[in-house]
Write a structure and sequence with these properties.
This protein has about 160 residues and is an all-alpha fold. It is about 70% helix and about 0% strand.
Length: about 160
């Protein structure tokens, strides 16, 4: 099978755009409502191309996100590895799910990611809020998922990424 040279660049570019969306400044009141773009893109590529994007990719993606957010090195990496592991375990089932079922799973996976990051920040001594408002990002991610899924699938098909 001949590998297309642009295939890897499409994946890199999608993560780059997700990083940009993750760090774009928002008003203080909107910070908890920002969808978790990087975990959602990771879930998509893990589901679509499990032989290409997996645990190692999740670790690298998480380390870059740690650097961009200025968090303790490894916090996002560890959380995204757990998300990628669950997504890899369920990728064949996720493909058969309806958009609503996939959104429910994204809600659970992004919620798990947020709780792991919050717990790891508490363990490492970083100051975090005591309320659970940070979990609203999981809800907005689940609402955003069907549109993101359709967009990434269209990009993957149009560039013949496999």
């Amino acid at each position: 099978m001949q590998d297309r040279p642009h295939s890897i660049w499409v994946i890199f570019l999608s993560f780059f755009i997700a990083y940009l969306l993750a760090i774009v400044p928002l008003p203080e009141w909107a910070m908890n409502y920002r969808p978790e773009w990087v975990p959602m893109v990771l879930i998509y590529w893990t589901m679509a191309l499990p032989y290409r994007v997996g645990i190692g990719s999740a670790w690298a993606v998480g380390l870059v996100l740690d650097v961009l957010e200025g968090s303790t090195l490894g916090v996002n990496a560890l959380a995204l590895v757990v998300v990628a592991y669950v997504a890899l375990s369920l990728h064949q089932r996720m493909r058969m799910f309806s958009a609503l079922q996939q959104s429910g799973l994204v809600l659970a996976l992004v919620g798990l990611n947020l709780m792991l990051c919050n717990w790891l920040q508490i363990v490492t001594g970083q100051s975090v809020s005591s309320n659970l408002m940070f979990l609203t990002a999981a809800l907005t991610s689940a609402v955003t998922w069907p549109s993101l899924f359709q967009l990434l699938r269209q990009i993957r098909r149009s560039f013949d990424v496999h």
